[in-house]
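request received
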Amino acid sequence: MITLEHIYWLSGLMMAGVAIVNWRDRSNRRRFNNTAFWGIYAITFLAGTYLPDVVNGFLVIGMVLVASIRGLSQSSRESSTKEEREASAKRWGNRLFIPALAIPIVTVLGTVVFKRVNIAGMPLVDVKQVTVISLAIATLIALAMGMAMLRPPASAPITEARRLLDAVGWAAVLPQMLAALGALFAVAGVGNVISGLAQRWIPLDHPAAVVTTYAVGMAVFTMIMGNAFAAFPVMTAGIGLPLIVQKFGGDPTIMAAIGMLSGFCGTLMTPMAANFNIVPTALLELPDENAVIKVQIPTALVLLGANVLLMNFLVFRR
Amino acid sequence: MLTLIGVAVVVIGFVLRINPLLVVTVAGLATGMASGLGPLAVVAAFGKAFITSRYVAIVWLVLPVIGLLEHAGLKERARAVVAGIGAATTSRVLLIYFVVRQITAALGLTSLGGHAQMVRPLIAPMAEGAAENKYGELPKKIRFWIRANAAAVDNVALFFGEDIFIAIGSILLIKGFLDQNGIHVEPTQLAIWAVPTAICALIIHCTRLLLMERRLRRDLAAGQDSE
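response:
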């Protein structure tokens, strides 16, 4: 059975390859920092499951120190010029889209098909993780298609991955780091403290005030945690269920559905949701790491207002 | 109250623009210490949380093939395709992507998109190409603004589309949580009540996308007149 662990090995091999390419590249003035950063990251993928927690903890701290104190850098060598790429684009035409579009298509097909494939009574892939595993398999199939079509040197996938990964830099690890922080927040009970504060300081004796507090609270708390999933249980147990549902007789289904979506408005406005807001600025080579958030704030605020109104109108109707 | 020290560290760190990796690590270690763990136990807890969150990073496996295709001119081709369509504007490219992304997400096909797979190699170059086609070479500021908008479209359409699909994580989380509290709701009902917000998101964001073209015209048309 293919499990998440196998996909981690694959990721680890890629990170190790990126570390090696960086080590051999003399055009990067901080090449050893990049080597150390991606090398340690590779270890957490390849061996993280088997190492003691405390060793993993120190590995992560090592990565953070390399990235934050001495910093990472990029190779100064361009892998191709604009003219070369334009000539190549003319030569290959729309065939270039085939492997690119194969990634989402195979991922979607995989999520449907892999669930039903059994070999000797065992499922082919771990059904609980089918989306992530399908994505990984889709990238391999797309890569095979690209290699067969373009026939580049065998080292090309790793050197190209290195180019893109170094362009993203430490931001590539930030979403995972924030997910880890969210887990620590949950263990320490950060949520309960915050909902306790909200209950103590905000006047909650009118239905409209309660609904507004719940929806806006979902957004604000999501901004702090970086994730609406972390905010939802806390806000709903602290304000939603005792006040909106039990005290004022609101509909729990409508409250929960619109409450979660109010949280998503918060996700659009916070650097803590790094995979949605910070990573794309790195991927798109934007100098301002808040550029995506700035574009999203007007939509998020207007939509949050719409959610407050919708919940006020709909939640008490039945 | 000491429990909130991690939140304070994060807010201060982001405001002072200290390296976010360092900020998050310090916040995690401080939160662990505040909840009464010893130094080594805190490091172990952080290491364990980091290792169990590795699935977040699997998306980077797309980089080898995307890099390979970019090297072969994928972005340039995406631009050329849009340049060949006279009616293509930045607003329309992003509008179409928004609608497709929101509908497919609502059908549960959330993997038909993403920043590394779709936005960087295809959508952003197409949006930029459409503007270049109309207004010529773009100033850097406008180019970056168009790219940021391409990333935002992916996010907004995904967030407010996926909740209409009954088997998505957020719906299952809501159902699980309410079940624990003795309230039984149907996933289909939760999905239906996500529709009003989804429609609002569509109207609000698509209006803003249409207004984008006006700003492009205002900021760039002056340059074109002088050609």
